[in-house]
Design goal:
By secondary structure, this protein is an alpha/beta fold. The chain has two domains: 2-131 and 333-353, Nucleotidyltransferase, domain 5 (2-Layer Sandwich), CATH 3.30.420; 157-329, Nucleotidyltransferase, domain 5. It has helices spanning 34-37, 47-63, 91-99, 108-118, 139-142, 157-171, 222-231, 234-243, 246-251, 256-264, 268-291, 309-319, 333-345, and strands at residues 2-9, 13-20, 23-31, 68-74, 86-88, 127-129, 179-185, 189-195, 198-202, 298-303, 325-329, 352-353.
C-alpha cells in the first residue's frame, strides 16, 4: 500500500497523518504544552521539540501496517510571494522558512520537519503545497494608495484552492476555467478572487485588509491605527491586532458559538458585534464579486466558521442572490497537502522550484 506522510504544524499542536490515494488512513494531533513553547525565542527553534513525538507516532503506526511511504509533505509557511502549486523543498525554501525573514508562523516548521524526516524513509525529495504566501495577485491589486506600502496577500490558499477544485467538479467546470469568490472563515479570515485556479486578489488574513475575525483586527480606520502605534511598541501593536482583537477584544471569547449563546441570553453588545461581523464579511464578499466584474460562477464559504448554520443563513441573506452560493466547511488542509503530492507522484503535476 502506497502512502504519503502529511505534516501540518499549528501554534500549539502538530497534525500528522498518513494518506493513501483513497484518503486518510490514520491521523493524530500532537498537542504541545504552552509553557514549553514559551521557552523558544523563535518558531524555528521548536524543530527538535516537535520532531520527536512525530517520529514516535510514525514508528508505532508503520510497524503494524504494510505501508510503503512514497512521499512526504509539510505545510508551507510565510516565504516570498509564490505562484500556486506543489513545490520541491530545497535549500532556499528551508533558509527562508528557518529565518522567518518574510514572517514568523508555525507553518514555517512544516518544510523543516518534512526535510528532517525524508531520509528515514529513503526519499530523495519532500514537498509543500500552496504555501501561505501563494498568490498571483494582479499588479493593480497590490497598489495601496501610499508609495512604498503594498497590499500583501497572506491567507489560506491551500484550503481555498482545494475547495475550488471540489466545487469545480460539482459544477462540471474545468478547474482552469473557474471564476470563484472564496471566503475562508476561521481564526483568521481570508477572502479571495480565484480565477483559473490562481488567487488574483486576496486580503492579508494576518495583518491587513478584510473583516475582523475571532481574534484579529482586519481593516481599521487609519487615524485610530496611528494613535495606537504611537502609544505602544511595535511588537505590542502587532500582538494586539493579530491575537487580541475581534470577538476576543469586544466579548472576551474567540468562539462564535459562545457569542451566539450570549445573544440568546439577550446580550445587546454580543448582538451588535455579531451583526457587524456578518456585515463586514458580506461587504468583502461583495467587493470581490464586483472585482470579478460580476461574473463569478460561485461564492464559496469554507473554514471552521462555515459549520455554523446560523451564521451561514445570516450571511446568505446579504450575498446569496449574487451567484451560486456554496458551503464547504472545514480547513481540509491535510487532504489538500496529500492530494498535491499524489498529483506530482502520479505525473499529473510537475513540481515547482523555489
Amino acid at each position: 500500500m502506497e502512502a504519503v506522510i502529511v505534516i501540518n504544524p499549528g501554534s500549539t499542536s502538530t497534525k500528522v497523518a498518513i494518506y493513501t490515494r483513497q484518503g486518510e488512513l490514520q491521523s493524530m494531533s500532537l498537542s504541545h504544552n504552552q509553557a514549553d513553547m514559551d521557552k523558544f525565542i523563535r518558531i524555528a527553534d521548536q524543530l527538535e521539540y516537535r520532531l520527536e513525538p512525530i517520529k514516535n507516532f510514525l514508528d508505532s503506526l508503520l510497524k503494524s501496517k504494510p505501508i510503503k511511504i512514497v512521499g512526504l509533505v509539510g505545510r508551507g509557511g510565510i516565504v516570498k510571494p509564490l505562484s500556486g502549486g506543489t513545490y520541491r523543498i530545497n535549500d532556499a525554501f528551508l533558509n527562508d522558512a528557518r529565518s522567518g525573514c518574510y514572517g514568523e508562523h508555525a507553518s514555517n516548521l512544516g518544510s523543516l520537519i518534512a526535510y528532517q524526516l525524508k531520509d528515514e524513509f529513503g526519499l530523495s525529495d519532500c514537498y509543500t503545497v500552496d504555501p501561505v504566501s501563494v498568490g498571483n495577485m494582479w499588479p493593480k491589486a497590490v497598489i495601496s494608495g501610499v508609495p512604498g506600502i503594498v497590499r500583501d496577500g497572506r491567507g489560506h490558499p491551500l484550503n481555498m484552492k482545494m475547495t475550488a477544485r471540489k466545487i469545480a467538479q460539482l459544477q462540471n467546470i474545468p478547474f482552469e476555467e473557474t471564476n470563484y469568490v472564496i471566503a475562508h472563515l476561521g481564526g483568521g479570515i481570508s477572502i479571495s478572487l480565484v480565477q483559473g485556479g490562481k488567487l488574483v486578489d486576496i486580503n492579508d488574513g494576518l495583518l491587513g485588509m478584510g473583516p475582523f475575525s475571532p481574534n484579529r483586527a482586519g481593516a481599521l480606520p487609519l487615524r485610530g491605527v496611528m494613535k495606537l502605534c504611537y502609544s505602544l511598541p511595535e511588537k505590542e501593536v502587532a500582538k494586539k491586532l493579530s491575537k487580541y482583537s475581534g470577538f476576543k477584544a469586544y466579548l472576551g471569547t474567540e468562539d462564535l458559538r459562545e457569542v451566539l449563546k450570549m445573544m440568546d441570553n439577550d446580550n445587546k453588545t454580543a448582538q451588535l458585534i455579531y451583526e457587524a461581523f456578518v456585515y463586514q464579511v458580506a461587504k468583502e464578499l461583495g467587493a470581490y464579486f464586483a472585482a470579478s466584474k460580476a461574473r463569478a460562477q460561485a461564492i464559496i464559504v469554507t473554514g471552521g466558521i462555515a459549520y455554523n448554520l446560523r451564521f451561514i443563513a445570516d450571511l446568505k441573506e446579504y450575498v446569496g442572490n449574487l451567484t451560486e452560493f456554496h458551503v464547504y466547511p472545514g480547513e481540509n488542509e491535510m487532504e489538500a497537502l496529500a492530494e498535491g503530492v499524489f498529483r506530482v507522484i502520479d505525473g499529473v503535476e510537475v513540481p515547482l522550484e523555489y
